[in-house]
């Protein structure tokens, strides 16, 4: 019997089946080489722009104490806090960020100090501190505080963002957790809450 060939059509592979008196003899495969496509050199240059975030809190209370706190953060860097408060008695006053932006029952409903890591109260520079522990601000003889603080635990975005929380100015000096009072480890024994304000984002 004459040999029989069968061509299987393909753009890449052309097999040939050969048969003889002894039966099936195997399959021969011819592979056609396809040229590689050249890589494109059209790369786009990416420019990374640092994101500036801004926020503000307007402090109000039942007394004549009031103020404005402006916050600014460049990219993921520390947050700069510009504080101006009027109507205070001269001297040191505890200044903290509290957990809730709720002022329905006055400043008391802002809750405890913002403390996402579950630590005890301390000074701003301490390793063990609440994120909201910003220490003391000092009012002059005119009752005015005007100061700029920088802190890396109060970001304006992310899971520990301070947006929607509240700043509180207190009646007394914060003992920074070192006063030996029963409230030292929670509030710094800083006394009553004179004024508070909820943090909200502002246009850049």
From TrEMBL:
Keywords: Antioxidant, Copper, Disulfide bond, Metal-binding, Oxidoreductase, Zinc. Binds 1 zinc ion per subunit. Binds 1 copper ion per subunit. GO terms for molecular function: copper ion binding; superoxide dismutase activity. It holds the Pfam family Sod_Cu. GO terms for cellular component: chloroplast. Residues 65-199 form the Superoxide dismutase copper/zinc binding domain. It comes from the Eukaryota. The keyword Membrane does not apply. It catalyses: 2 superoxide + 2 H(+) = H2O2 + O2. Its cofactor is Zn(2+); Cu cation. The keyword Oxidoreductase applies. Its EC number is 1.15.1.1. InterPro entries: SOD-like_Cu/Zn_dom_sf (IPR036423), SOD_Cu/Zn_/chaperone (IPR024134), SOD_Cu/Zn_BS (IPR018152), SOD_Cu_Zn_dom (IPR001424). Belongs to the Cu-Zn superoxide dismutase family. Destroys radicals which are normally produced within the cells and which are toxic to biological systems. This is Superoxide dismutase [Cu-Zn]. It comes from Pogonatum inflexum. The lineage of its organism: Eukaryota, Viridiplantae, Streptophyta, Embryophyta, Bryophyta.
